Amino acid sequence: MRLAAGLIVCTTLLTGHATAQTWPARSIRVVVPYPAGGGADFVARVFCKALSDTIGQQFVVDNRGGANGNVGSEAAAKSTPDGYTLLVTASTNLTINPNLYRKMPFDVQRDLMPISILAIQPTILVVHPTLPARSVKDLVAIAKARPGQLNFGSAGAGSSAHLAAELFKMVAGVDMVHVPYKGTGPATADLLGGQIPLMFNNLPPSVALVKAGKLRALAVTGEKRSPAMPDVPTMAEAGYSGVVLTLWNGMLAPAGTPAEIVARLNTEIIKVAQMPEVRDRLVAEGTEAFTSTPPQMADMMRSETARWAKVVKTANIALE
User: Fold this and answer.
1) Where residue 205 falls among pLDDT bands split at 50, 70, 90?
2) Residue 317 and which of 22, 53, 72, 272 are 20 to 30 A apart at CA?
3) Residue 236 lies in a domain
4) Per the domain annotation, does 232 fall within a domain?
5) Cα–Cα distance between 285 and 141 in angstroms, integer?
């Protein structure tokens, strides 16, 4: 029995080594657990095009939306760990969802292997022009004068926009009412129409609207100003240093993927992230290229999961 078990282990190790040596011999599927056209999808397509060119095999995006990213991420996590199925997802899927859902369909830490962060972006606090707030302090003063009367929109319960606003409520000590929508698009449409007065929105869909004067930007939630909107202060500069939310997208593989493949992908990602055409394409949409080692990404996942646990508990949010 021991000899048979030993032979199975050796065969598995040799097969994994052979796979790593010949990888990639065919196209690679990259699962994006959101509909086409969103932030994670945009970042995935920019990197997939560049990686296809540098590695010499096609990286094909496979959009599988549902359950705030859980449906597609579960499919990727439970795929064969041979380097031919990867995942590009948002940090919210990896760090907020485990705190929101009473029962996750997969274990983020156990079932997925980090490869690298790809890009980062803050959220942006925007208001309808009819709201007489030209700074974050103006908004806080209005909210305190009208407790429970200001509505804020989001892409849905537990979305990054929702959590950013809950964090802002905690730090600023204000009472505002959450209005969840089924996606960023409908929420932004009602914000533009004046049905809701404010929102912590994703940066890419907000840049053009602010520049056109259709929305007013009060602050971004990053640690530094966004190159896409250099005139907009950070929340810290606006006087609320506790409101920091940097969204990021990362690439992961199913646990058990050969280390040689993960290392090769990490090297190639760092290489393409330095290409001017990649960096410029991302910046134009309010996103910045940002890479990491696998351990650095794993550390960020763990620390942010612990941080958002406190916000979710305080806001009393839970999803089935």
Assistant:
1) confident
2) 72
3) no
4) no
5) 32
Q: For residue 302, what are its two tokens?
A: 């763990």
Residue 9 has a pLDDT of: 53
What backbone torsions phi and psi does residue 271 show, to the nearest 5 degrees?
Answer: -65, -50
Q: CATH number of the domain that 19 lies in?
A: 3.40.190.150
Kindly report whether the global pTM for this prediction surpasses the value 0.85: no
Token pair 């597609």 in the structure block, residue: 72
Domain extent, residue 141, equals 122-220
User: Is the domain of 112 the same as that of 216?
Assistant: no
Q: What's the CATH code of the domain at 185?
A: 3.40.190.10
Dist. CA 299–CA 310, nearest whole Å: 18
CA atoms within 13 A on the CB side of 189: 6
Alpha-carbon span 258 to 253, nearest angstrom:
10
Q: What is the pLDDT of residues 122-134, one digit of tens each?
A: 899 999 999 999 9
**18: pLDDT strictly greater than 80:** no
Three-state secondary structure call for residue 141? helix
